[in-house]
Each structure stands twice: as C-alpha cells, then as structure tokens.
Amino acid sequence: MGHVIVVGNEKGGAGKSTLSVHIAVACAISGLKVAALDLDRRQRTFERYFENRARWSATHETELPTPDFFYLSKATAERRVDAEAEETEATRTLIAAMRDSHDIVLVDAPGADTPASRAAHACADTLVSPLNDSFIDFDLLAEIDPVTGEVGKPSVYAEMVWEARKQKAASRGKPIDWVLMRNRLSPLDAKNKRRVGDALSALAQRIGFRVAPGLSERVIYREMFTAGLTLLDLTDEGAAATFTLSHVAARQELRDLILALKLPPLGE
Amino acid sequence: MGHVIVVGNEKGGAGKSTLSVHIAVACAISGLKVAALDLDRRQRTFERYFENRARWSATHETELPTPDFFYLSKATAERRVDAEAEETEATRTLIAAMRDSHDIVLVDAPGADTPASRAAHACADTLVSPLNDSFIDFDLLAEIDPVTGEVGKPSVYAEMVWEARKQKAASRGKPIDWVLMRNRLSPLDAKNKRRVGDALSALAQRIGFRVAPGLSERVIYREMFTAGLTLLDLTDEGAAATFTLSHVAARQELRDLILALKLPPLGE
Ligand SMILES: Nc1ncnc2c1ncn2[C@@H]1O[C@H](COP(=O)(O)OP(=O)(O)OP(=O)(O)O)[C@@H](O)[C@H]1O
Ligand SMILES: Nc1ncnc2c1ncn2[C@@H]1O[C@H](COP(=O)(O)OP(=O)(O)OP(=O)(O)O)[C@@H](O)[C@H]1O
Ligand SMILES: [Mg+2]
Ligand SMILES: [Mg+2]
User: Has residue B1 got a pLDDT over 90?
Assistant: First the structure.
C-alpha cells in the first residue's frame, strides 16, 4: 500500500511543483516506485519537467530515475454540482489505484481551490506545504495582528486542510502528517524572516502542522527545468565542474528536507 | 473614460498582487481616482492589503491614498456553460461601470484560468504581466529548446492573451499594450538571468509584448503587508530612520516601472 504525499498550498508560486519534482526524483533515485499526478491541467509544470527529462534521456541515451505519471480524466457533467462530484470521485479512484501499484504516490496540487485538489488532500498520508517567507503567503493560513504579531483567525487554506482532515478521519484513514516548509529563503531580511518564523511556530500548535527545514532561494532549483534535470542527477563523474559551494549546500538542504518528511518507505 | 490596467499572469506567484498594490498606490498618490477589482475571490490578497491599510489609517488617524474597491457578484446558474457566461457578462459590466467613474481601473487577475480573468483581459488597455526569472514561469508563455535556446510554440498564457486581443479587436477597442515585467530579480545568477532575458527578447517580437524594467527581490515589497503600507508611503519626515540604500533603489525601480507603463492619465 503506497504512501500518499500531496504537495499542496492554495497560494500561487509557493514552490509546489519545484518541491514535487525534487521529492519525486529523490524517491526514484532511492529505488522506490513513484506514481505521479499533476493536478494543474493548464500549467502542467510537474509533467513538463519530466517531459523535458524524457527528451534529455533520449538524446543522451541515458536512463534517469523517473516517476510513472497518471492522468485524471476531465469531468463531463453539465451541471456544476455534478461535475464537481465527478471530479472528486475520479480523483479518489485514481489515487487508490496509484497506491496499489507503487511505493510512493506524489500529487502536485494546483494553486487554486478545485474539487480534485480537495479530494487529493483528503487522501494524503503526508501533506507538504511550501511557503514563501512572506506575510502575503502566511495570510492564506491565518490572520496576524500587525502590531502585536499575534496569530488570529485561520484562513482559507488552513480551513481547506481542516476539511480534508475531517474527511480522512471519517474514512478511517490515518491522520494526515502536515509538514510546512519555508521556501526561497534569502540569507538577507533577518527581521522579516524572524517574524514569519515566530508566526509559524505560534500557528503550528494551533492548527496542527510541524515545520520542516526549508529550501533557500537557489538558481540550481530552477535553472535545469528545460533539460528536466535536478541537482540530484549531477554526479561527481559527470559534472564535477558544476559543483560549487551552493550545490553542496543545496544537496544538504534537500537531504534534510526528505529526512524530515519521515517517509515510511524510506524507512525513516 | 478610465484607462484599464489588468495585472495578469496565469502562473502563480509571479507577483501580480504585489504589483497591483504598488501601481494602485502610485496612481492614487499622484491624485488619480483609482477603481480596483480583485478577481481572486479566495485569496483576496489585493483587497486584504487595503483592508490592512484601512485599519492602519484608522488606528493612526491618518488618511492614506487608497483606491475604491468594487466587487464581482458570484454566478448562480446551475449549468457550467451558463455560469461561465454569467461570470463573463458580470465582469464586462462591472469594468465598464468602473471606467465611467474613475481615471484608472486596476484589475488584479488570479493565477488561474477563469471566465472573469479572460473577460478582464479582453477589456484591458494595458496588460502588465510580471514574471519570475525562471524557465518554469517562461514555460507558460512558450516552449524553449534546451540545447539551442530557441523559442518554440506559444503556450497556455500566450494563447489566453491572444484570445483576449481578438475579443478586444472585435469589440473595436484599442489594441492591448502588453507589458512584461521581470520580478524578484536577484543580483546573483547571471547566466540564468541572461538566458531568460534572451528568451524574452526573442519571444517579444513574435507574440507582441514589450519588456519593461522590472523589480528586484526586496523585502520592502512585502514586509509591510500586515500594516497595508508600501515604500511609497514612507516619507522623509515620518520614517527617515527606515531609509536605506535598498529603499532608495526600490523607489527608483517603482518609478521606472510606472513610467514604462506609459499610462495616459499620468500624461506619459
Ligand atoms: N527554492 C527555490 N529557489 C529558486 N527558485 C525557486 C525555488 N522554489 C521555487 N522557485 C521558483 O519560483 C517559481 C514558483 O515555483 P513553483 O512553480 O514550483 O511554484 P508552485 O507553487 O508550483 O506554483 P503554482 O501555484 O503556479 O503551481 C518558479 O519560477 C520556480 O522556478
Ligand atoms: N519584488 C518582490 N520582492 C520580494 N518579494 C516579492 C516580490 N514580488 C512578489 N514577492 C513575494 O512573492 C510572493 C508572490 O507574490 P504575489 O502574491 O504578489 O504573486 P501573485 O502573482 O499575485 O500570486 P497568485 O498567483 O497567488 O495570485 C509573495 O510572498 C510576495 O510577497
Ligand atoms: Mg505548480
Ligand atoms: Mg495574487
């Protein structure tokens, strides 16, 4: 029975697809069978990264560890409520099938509130939510008092996860391990970083997530998109010249992140 | 007859709301009557920034230049095609009303493909699209050959703008001035920055946009969200202590960006 990881955050550009790609490659490199689902049918960033990877593999006659992609069929019902129910059901069925045949199921959720995204969240064993170091991103989790810094009322995405947890509990699934991960961290802006960090610690207790070590802003996490490669694919033999201090630090960040996810198939 | 600015990019987190807030404040500070519309009904970042601003104004008994917000009513039709037509029509009607009563209409589009977003794009006089310095963001404009760097087939967002331009032409509106603006630029990553820059110049010719000076990654563009303030509100008298080299550079960036938009009401 595969372990379901949903990479979710309704906030656009938080780093969901970037994270999905790197987690998928890390798991595939460890020898796990990874089933992948890209719920953003317009952008398809997650799929596109691996389409580029397949093309690179072909032109370089190299095998690169890659997940198996699955595809959600579009709803056909005419009435809105029927189309939503159709999409919800199709998502559950597909994820269940992916679980039966793979060690890891990785779902890249869209930066929007859709029935498929909600259904996927309700199937998650691990929910990983990247977050920019910004109160603009934080605002989708909870309100915050500008003067006292006190965390207030939960906001739209926290409510979506709350709903997903209720649904998972109702279907007797194990509790969702909600992991928040700061992304695109800059070595500068110490004051803003500390304020966001404090707000996250305060909120973690209240709405039930844990904060994992995050990823810094590094060009290496995005500059190889057109080739479909990640830094995990750069090996000493093949690309010794490209290794810099930043790459070594990036490898460590990714390693720490994967460990922090405590994924059962990786025996953590 | 007001000038309609749509801040659009289907790619999440490109910087639409951040840009919308700063353009709105810049125009309001210049004395223009600004009408604002936030099409992201879940996140409402644009609205939230000004809700925070209103609260700050109240507690500090200060008037801060602020746009007038308008709200799109939700579609009620049961069938999907009917709800989409309803949303499209409501958007057009609302933007027309905003144009009649204000100098500037500013629409913050969502990071998703919605009927309201498409309708707003088709009403734009100026379409401003921020873009992260990344081939992941670029992928929504066009494909790119990883080896030759050659720009290929236009992608989902370029097609959306193409459709909007056809609709505007059909309704005898003046052509949409499509301005692309790089956002969150880092002083590092010279090679990736150059490659993205070259791809943008090549694409600009083909799909008809111009590239304006962009914004660097600066904490000042986001750290005052909870107070609803922008660096444009920091004046020498009130906040001399906060002025740093970065703030002066940020002011210059914003000024250059607004000038580059060549907005008729600003007499450019
Ligand atoms: N740690 C990082 N370092 C550098 N660039 C990053 C990092 N994380 C994300 N990015 C860049 O930030 C942008 C947004 O990332 P990404 O597309 O992964 O976010 P997303 O949450 O999937 O967005 P969407 O809501 O549109 O699906 C992309 O241009 C990506 O290349
Ligand atoms: N120039 C910048 N410097 C620093 N931070 C920025 C800059 N532009 C945007 N950000 C930050 O990047 C994140 C995404 O920005 P923003 O919310 O404005 O994007 P968006 O395109 O409106 O996203 P969405 O698709 O979710 O509507 C936010 O955390 C914001 O604070
Ligand atoms: Mg994505
Ligand atoms: Mg936004």
Answer: no
